[in-house]
Design a protein that fits this description.
By secondary structure, the protein is α/β, with parallel strands linked by helices. It folds into 3 domains: 71 residues; 285 residues, Aldolase class I (TIM Barrel, Alpha-Beta Barrel), CATH 3.20.20; 99 residues, no CATH class. Helices cover 44% and strands 15% of the residues. The chain contains 18 helices and 16 strands. β9, α6 and β10 form a beta-alpha-beta unit. α9 packs across α10 and α13 runs antiparallel to α14. The longest helix has 27 residues.
Length: 494
């Protein structure tokens, strides 16, 4: 370390007026060489000395006693970093006991997240984005993965993390994510799940679905008991299951066979049947799981659509008594088939977390995403109220368009007019569900809108603000995501 300090002390400054600010947790030695990160004025940079410098592209600097490369955070340099330090590359973690997804729409939330996961034994999924989110933010999977890699290296996190190609629907999307080394694929089956079946009469069900004799023999008249919970199929319920989920089961089986069974993907497989209007009953969950297993599919997790509403960025909406009763059975079914229960849209579902921890017995996967963006905007409302007021007004203009991408029940009339609020009162908007959802779903428009001259209206100012206030944002995430984990653990440690 003394040699490193002497070396760093002799490095030329980023400019003639300011010396390097080294991230101490990033310092890694390779023989007599070092690789570490420094804070630049506008962006963090990678520094590699001696022979290690040859692995990275950047500005090569030679001084009296040493040479080093000053490397930008490019995709190529991220690949080199992963090859040199495997802990910076994602790995399959979904089959670990506890996992927690923290989708980072901005590529700057990982420092706050890592502070949480240094305190808990859950494995984080640090890179987690859907194609929809990529399109709305104009990002790429390369950027999503690289952001996690650089922060993991910078902050010295070596316990392992995952990368989730989230809510993918098409083979080409899956191929894209797998080609980059994503270690988890969440297959969104929503386009293959039939709606409206719950309202069909017995006669309509019979007309729509002639039950194959083999399928009927597998379920009708059978006593299925899982952890004391009885599941009984009659012909009408079996027809409903087949009509709603039959095509989705075929779709998931085909994807699994192509990419995981035959393709040998080094990734975990999650099946999502949650992006629908119709809740998944425990009986339907059992049917889907049983048919998948019979087809040779080995999911690491399954995400049913729970009763009530798991809307974006707000607490659970619905009957908690019913939720608890059904959750107990859903968790038992997951244990029976050997996978974890996955809870999607888990951001801020504080009233459910202790129950989830309890009934899954601490064996869960929970996904959050937009709440990290909301904390970033709460920081803006707190420290730059003028900019927040401008963004809030624009969000109101774009809300109707944003609703096309998300299911929310936001009532704009319940959001206080900004003209009635003092600057000090702005952060309190993030405790009000309608205001939270307004900002939650308009992120893509806020981040990509441009001025007439082609410059970004908000994006550049926002990123400068977040860089200047990185510790503030990190503190907020540490507290907010930490609350999620604390309640989940309370459930199974009680």
């Amino acid at each position: 370390m003394k040699k490193l300090c002497e070396f760093i002390g002799g490095l030329p400054a980023l400019d003639k007026a300011k010396a390097f600010d080294v991230y101490a947790d990033s310092v890694n030695a390779i023989g007599n060489d070092y690789v570490f990160m420094v804070r630049g004025e506008e962006a963090d940079l990678l520094v590699a000395t001696g022979a290690a410098a040859e692995k990275f592209e950047g500005e090569l600097v030679t001084c009296d006693a040493c040479s080093y490369v000053l490397a930008p955070k490019t995709h190529k340099n991220a690949d080199a970093l992963c090859a040199m330090f495997p802990f910076t590359a994602p790995m399959p973690v979904l089959k670990k006991t506890r996992t927690f997804g923290v989708g980072d729409r901005l590529g700057i939330a990982t420092p706050g997240h890592l502070r949480v996961f240094k305190e808990y034994d859950a494995y984080p999924i640090l890179a987690q984005q859907s194609i929809r989110e990529l399109n709305l933010t104009e990002r790429t999977y390369e950027d999503v993965l690289d952001s996690a890699t650089y922060y993991v290296f910078r902050d010295g996190y070596k316990d392992g993390f995952g990368a989730d190609g989230d809510h993918l629907k098409k083979p080409e999307e899956i191929e894209y994510a797998l080609s980059l080394g994503f270690t988890m694929i969440t297959l969104d089956c929503s386009e293959h799940i039939r709606g409206g079946v719950e309202k069909m009469s017995p006669a309509e069900l019979a007309a729509e679905c002639a039950l194959p004799a083999e399928l009927a023999a597998r379920y009708i008249g059978k006593e299925i008991v899982i952890e004391g919970e009885k599941l009984v199929f009659d012909e009408d319920e079996l027809r409903r299951c087949q009509l709603i989920y039959g095509e989705a089961i075929e779709f998931a089986t085909g994807i699994y066979n192509k990419y995981f069974k035959e393709g040998g993907a080094r990734a975990d497989f999650e099946i999502s049947i949650d992006e629908t209007a119709t809740p998944t009953s425990p009986l339907q969950h059992y049917f889907v799981a049983n048919e998948l297993i019979l087809n040779g599919v080995d999911p690491a997790t399954v995400a049913p659509r729970f009763c009530g509403e798991f809307q974006k960025g707000v607490d659970y909406i619905g009957d908690l008594v019913q939720f608890e009763s059904e959750l107990k059975t859903h968790a038992a079914i997951a244990r029976h088939f050997g996978y974890k229960l996955s809870i999607h849209s888990g951001s801020d579902k504080f009233s459910t977390f202790a129950l989830i921890g309890k009934y899954t017995e601490g064996n869960f996967h929970v996904k959050t995403a937009g709440t990290n963006w909301l904390e970033a905007m709460r920081a803006v409302a707190t420290a730059d109220p003028a900019m927040y007021r401008e963004i809030h007004a624009y969000a109101l203009e774009m809300f109707a368009e944003a609703k096309k991408f998300y299911h929310v029940t936001t009532d704009l009339n319940k959001i206080p007019a900004l003209s009635t609020l003092t600057d000090a009162e702005l952060p309190a908007l993030f405790t009000q569900n309608d205001a939270r959802q307004l900002i939650h779903i308009t992120y893509g428009f806020i981040l990509t809108v441009k001025n007439e001259d082609g410059s970004y209206r908000f994006k550049d100012r926002l990123y400068k603000f977040w860089r200047d206030n990185e510790n503030v944002y990190s503190d907020m995430l540490h507290a907010h995501i930490g609350k999620h984990l604390a309640l989940l653990y309370e459930g199974f440690r009680a």
